[in-house]
Design a protein that fits this description.
The chain has 334 residues and is α+β, with helices and mostly antiparallel strands. Helix content is 35%, strand content 26%. It has eleven helices and 14 strands.
Length: 334
């Protein structure tokens, strides 16, 4: 069992540093005993892009999630993710095997995405009751290729990749598996748990920027409604969105109906929201690469953010708390 405080040097070497195998040439100084900082070399015309995210909504697969969520943020700027730093807080009573498993998850995703873990901090503390990871991603992008959330312009098409609610569906299926198995076929629950395979939008961004985008924003807390609002607010534009065109998996629909929550406001890592002058071309490029995508509306003049559902019209409002927390609170009360 690990003792309270910083993890011992032997644990640091054995269960953290030894697990880091992905290396990049840009990293001059990376993770190591006694190293408090990372050093990264970039070209003169390149920019650093950084992002940081905590993983707090689930205890399942947090190593993998921490890399995906942060890498997705970096990718939405059009940048290449090169490094990640991790702050890992473990509850008292945690075993070294749990820490090693988290780092193995981190490295498995880093290996696939060619990201190097460049440093961080790990300690055991009484202030958490489950492992908490805060990941800080580091990316690079050519100065003239930077994409922001604020770039959407009237007349642009609005594109979304994959399906909404993937992350939330996977988390619920893992956190409340026993209940779901009493309500749905085991095959459906297993499929929902497996949505974690779709959580990276790094490839989505890569294919989209080759065609041309004006803004990108990965869909996370607050779901697609939250992401749409944030793009519109950042860009100072309106929207007209067709609800029926937003892609959603049947497993997500079924699970959301079971808990009385909206898939449109459910955490959705794995989906990238894109504005572009060439929506059909972006969708074709993504589908040719095996990534589901759809044009779901238009960017408009003014500030009206309209959601159409057949003849029914409603308006977007500022993001509310993610629907996932309703499920977690309900489960905690049992």
């Amino acid at each position: 069992m690990l003792k309270t405080g910083k993890v011992p040097e032997s644990v640091l070497k054995r269960s953290i540093i030894k697990q880091i195998r992905t290396k990049r040439d840009e990293i001059v100084v990376g993770a190591g005993v006694g190293e408090d900082c990372a050093a990264i070399a970039l070209e003169a015309d390149e920019l650093f892009v950084t992002s940081t995210d905590p993983i707090t909504g689930t205890g399942h697969d947090i190593g993998a999630l921490s890399v995906h969520v942060t890498a997705n943020d970096i990718a939405s700027s059009g940048a290449e993710v090169i490094g990640i730093m991790l702050s890992i807080l473990l509850p008292e009573g945690c075993e070294e095997s749990e820490l090693k498993s988290v780092m193995q998850q981190v490295e498995e995703v880093c290996g696939r995405l060619n990201i190097q873990t460049v440093g961080g901090h790990t300690e055991v503390t009484s202030v958490v009751n489950q492992p908490v990871i805060t990941a800080t991603g580091i990316g690079k992008v050519k100065r003239d290729k930077l994409v922001t959330t604020a770039g959407a312009r009237p007349g642009d098409d609005v594109v979304i990749t994959k399906w909404i609610g993937l992350e939330g569906t996977s988390i619920i299926a893992k956190e409340d598996e026993e209940h779901l198995l009493s309500r749905f076929p085991a095959s459906m629950v297993e499929t929902a748990k497996g949505f974690e395979q779709y959580l990276s939008v790094v490839p989505d961004a890569g294919y989209a920027v080759k065609i041309g985008v004006t803004a990108m924003h990965d869909v996370t807390e607050g779901g697609v409604f939250g992401a749409l609002w944030e793009v519109a607010e950042a860009s100072g534009v309106g929207l007209e969105i067709e609800l029926l065109d937003i892609p959603v998996r049947q497993e997500t629909v079924e699970i959301c109906e079971e808990y009385g929550i909206s898939p449109y406001q459910l955490i959705s890592s794995g989906s990238m929201l894109i504005t572009t002058k060439n929506g059909a071309e972006v969708v074709k490029a993504l589908k040719d690469a095996g990534i589901n995508a759809a044009v779901i509306g238009k960017v408009t003049e003014g500030n009206d953010r309209i959601l159409r559902n057949g003849d029914e019209i409603r308006y977007l409002t500022p993001p509310a708390a993610d629907e996932l927390y309703k499920v977690i609170r309900r489960k905690d009360k049992k």
